[in-house]
Amino acid sequence: MISLSLPSVPIPDAVATLIGRQIPEHVLDAEIVAMNQAYVIGLCRKPETAEAREYALGDLARANKVLAQFDPRLIVRGAA
Description:
Layout: H1 13-22, H2 25-43, H3 50-70
């Protein structure tokens, strides 16, 4: 759910690793949290899971704040 456009050619693993080393660890951690919480939000659709959904939305907002400080194009959107 990251809004970056991917290149039309495959990226070799060594190049992907090199790109990954350029991104700070706290940003990578925030991306993992954001993706996980976006998935959880999609699962919490029933009224019984409203509290879990609100918790996931809070975590997603905190993670998106970190991602937006690094690059606004990295923001993850939750399932509506």
